[in-house]
Request: fold
Amino acid sequence: MGGEIRRHRKAVPLSQESLAERIGMHRNYIGLVERGEADVTAKTLFAIGEVLGVSPAVFFTPPSDGPAAFTRRRRRAAAPSSDADDS
Reply:
C-alpha cells in the first residue's frame, strides 16, 4: 500500500512534506507509511486520496504493469497421522 501511495504522490507531483502539510500530518509519518513501517487509518487514506485526486481504493490495487501484491499460497500437504494403532 505504501508503494502505491508513493507512486501516486510522485505522479502529482508532491513532496512528502507538502502531502503531510495538506493532510495535517508530519512529513516523517508519510515516509513511514510509504515504507510500510507505520499503520494508516481509513480516515488518513481518504485524506491522502483526496489530496492526490484518487480513490483510496487505488492504494490496494496492484499496478497494471506488475505482479499482484497479494498472491494465494498453496496449501501444504498434511503430515501423515501418527495415530496408528500399535497392536
Confidence is low (pLDDT under 50) at residues 67-72.
